Amino acid sequence: MKSFAIASALLALALSLSGCISAPITLTPQTEQRLQAQAPIRFLLTFDDGPSASGYNNPTRSVMADLANNPVLPGIKAVFFLQTEASRSGGSSRGRKTMEREFAAGHVLAFHTATAFHTNHRWLSDAELERTLSQGAADIAAITGVSPTLVRPPFWNYDRRTFAAYQRHGMKVLLTDLSANDGKIWGFNASPRRRENLIRQLSVVRERIALGELPTVDGVIPVVVTFHDINRYTARHLQEYLQILMDSARIDGLKTAAEPFYTDHAALERAALARTVKQASEEVHLPGVWNWVWDADSK
């Protein structure tokens, strides 16, 4: 089953870059009418796998700079899901300093892994899972003063055992509504159909919003978006991505809040916690083919 999971994950990544993106779901008059009763959306930005430990044009620090200063909305705050012990991420001195900068800038530090590599938590023994969760929580608490409350399992994948372990450590699982498909595989780190991809994905989320399936927090509906701050392509194009998200909302018939991104740490954290998975058995909606991958793996 483990080998099937690896093959499935690689297939999912390959498909995400293949250019096979369906057309957006058509906005019907019925959906348009239902949307009028819903609150505006606000994009909740998240970044996986960082921080970068690169000493050359560090992409994580470039992302932070563009979040702080951009033509769409200066001062954007994001959730960074960290690899706290990976040598090319948080396990380096530069990585630790970058995490400190992220926190000082008002971003939310959350847990991704505390293994040497980007390892699926389901493949860890009970003892190793417990050790890495404790280590990652300690790494983040050393910077923020408190243990992290948010976790994103690598590859979005968890089961009852790992979910229960997260709960024991006070961590709640945050998945995503939109994925930029910018995870680097086999040296390829571009996103040639980034605009079509996000427009299509947001049209799917729009249908759920129209049905009242997403919660309203502080008067807005948080829509979770995932990028990878270790990806230099993402770092170079982040300001473009921000504008693409705004364009996608307009094209898909969604109204955005006066502040379309989060600029306050506390509001960001409240919104993220409201979007977390409440039970391991809860039906989740992952973008692209990821639901199919993990549904097949569980059978």
TrEMBL record:
Please name the Pfam families in this protein's record.
Polysacc_deac_1
Q: Would you tell me the protein name for this molecule?
A: Polysaccharide deacetylase family protein
Q: Which GO terms describe its biological process?
A: carbohydrate metabolic process
Chain ranges of the NodB homology domain:
41-257
Record's InterPro entries?
Answer: Glyco_hydro/deAcase_b/a-brl, NODB_dom, Polysacc_deacetylase_ArnD
Which terms are listed as keywords in the entry?
Signal
Organism name: Pseudomonas veronii
User: Secretion signal: which residues?
Assistant: 1-23
> Which terms does the record give in the GO molecular function aspect?
hydrolase activity, acting on carbon-nitrogen (but not peptide) bonds
